[in-house]
# Entry
Amino acid sequence: MSKCGQEKRKKVLEFQNVTFSYKDKQQTESTPILQRVNTAIYEREFITIIGASGSGKSTLFRLITGLENPDEGHILLNGEAEEHRLGKVGYMPQQDLLLPWRTIQENAALPIELKRVRKEEAYKRVLPLLEEFGLEGMENRFPHELSGGMRQRVSFLRATLSGSNILLLDEPFSALDAITRLSMQEWLMEQWEKQKTTVVFITHDVNEALFLSDRIFVFGEKPIRTLQEVDVPLGRPRSLKDLNQPSLIELKDQLLEQLRGKVMG
Ligand SMILES: Nc1ncnc2c1ncn2[C@@H]1O[C@H](COP(=O)(O)OP(=O)(O)OP(=O)(O)O)[C@@H](O)[C@H]1O
# Structure
């Protein structure tokens, strides 16, 4: 999205001078992760975060979800400084974390039940959604009876039912085989276009980042002081073939070089 386009859009997530480090129990040692970081993410944007292992990607999610709090600075959700962020954004962790003793319908209905809606009503509400998410006929199965791609779709459905306009997806497709992964990327694109949410997506796969996102945040230096952002020069709808354009191949090489540079130090 162009800078001019961003100005017209509503900010759904904002970091204002956020500083964060992990401390050990004795508070003697600390691992600084973010230092006075400022950034904004806009409504209906698709942002991808790439970066070497240990660069702080999941920590950013822990801060957004409220599992951690900044040492300094503020995190704003939909324009408001939110001290109590737990439960206010949809979050899909790396592992699907479906409850093995609950059926698919019961797993998907969990966020609705947590809003104190009666179980029967919650189950009724998720039934048509299961169909929409390609899970028709799976409602009474248990998670171990589903393929990896299907489990990810249940997990994604559950995250969208949090009711938030912000979805955080932490490497959702990393455990899938290459073919399933490609079809899940296309499926995610369709869902995102339908649902009109803002998505922040962590991946190690530069192709996946280029195919899915409007902007890519590259995590390198530690602590992170300035978020390095790259605009993806592709319109929508897009297809995987678009990644074969010379400008995209060049951008991919640049990103890989950057990541390699960061890993090697
Ligand atoms: N609870 C914790 N206490 C102390 N240090 C932590 C904690 N969680 C993460 N760290 C450290 O913070 C740094 C960033 O970790 P984080 O999990 O955010 O990285 P990441 O970029 O998500 O890595 P990966 O790609 O491997 O998932 C690492 O050096 C890690 O060891």
